[in-house]
From TrEMBL:
Keywords: Amino-acid biosynthesis, Cytoplasm, Histidine biosynthesis, Lyase. It holds the Pfam family IGPD. Its EC number is 4.2.1.19. This is Imidazoleglycerol-phosphate dehydratase. It comes from Hominenteromicrobium mulieris. Belongs to the imidazoleglycerol-phosphate dehydratase family. It comes from the Bacteria. SUPFAM superfamilies: Ribosomal protein S5 domain 2-like.
Length: 195
């Protein structure tokens, strides 16, 4: 069974079409936000995911709606592609260095959304990307995918490096958590991970 999903979301603020493949595929990302494209590409490549994404947003305002709504759509795609979440490893974690910065991520693909985010960025912007939107992206992803997601960057001096370490740590954690387990079992004492 193919573990993939396509999600389209249109509002007065954004128009987003996204296709996600959990087991790989082409990676083509265009959100109109160069640094955000770089981060989403890193998430897909390091996670081993296929990702085709086209997003148009209200850049006359700022990057907020585009970044947050992309998190919403990506989260929904993960939720659909995972189905009832049976047969997956469920948990993943990773610690990734990026020069002077260190990013940590732990994830439970549990169906229960919860975000813990601990990072203070020294620069307010990286290109056209507001660094405060990093947390908003991951919150939208967590809420819409049903992930318990813990992200931490305990130190760093360069916001680019810090954010990239977090995205790559998330990628590796999600790669492990969404991988198929050896038994096909649901890793829950309840017997289900859906809802």
């Amino acid at each position: 069974m193919e573990r993939a999903a396509t999600v389209v979301r249109q509002t007065k603020e954004t128009n987003i079409e996204l296709t996600l493949g959990l087991d790989g595929g082409e990676v083509v990302v265009d959100t109109g936000v160069g640094f955000f494209d770089h981060m989403l590409t890193a998430l897909a490549v390091h996670g081993g995911f296929g990702l085709r994404l086209k997003a148009e947003g209200d850049w006359n305002v700022d990057c907020h709606h585009t970044v947050e709504d992309t998190g919403i759509v990506l989260g929904r795609a993960f939720k659909q592609a995972l189905g009832d979440r049976s047969g997956i490893v469920r948990y993943g974690h990773a610690m990734i260095p990026m020069d002077e910065a260190l990013g940590f991520c732990a994830v439970d693909v549990s169906g229960r959304p919860y975000l813990v985010f601990d990072a203070a960025f020294p620069q307010e912007r990286v290109g056209d990307f507001d660094t405060c939107m990093t947390e908003e992206f991951f919150r939208a992803l967590s809420d819409n995918a049903g992930f318990t997601l813990h992200l931490r960057c305990p130190y760093g001096k360069n916001s680019h490096h810090m954010i990239e370490a977090l995205f790559k740590a998330c990628a590796h954690a999600l790669c492990d958590a969404t991988a198929e387990n050896s038994t096909g079992a649901v890793l829950s004492t309840k017997g289900t991970l859906s809802e």
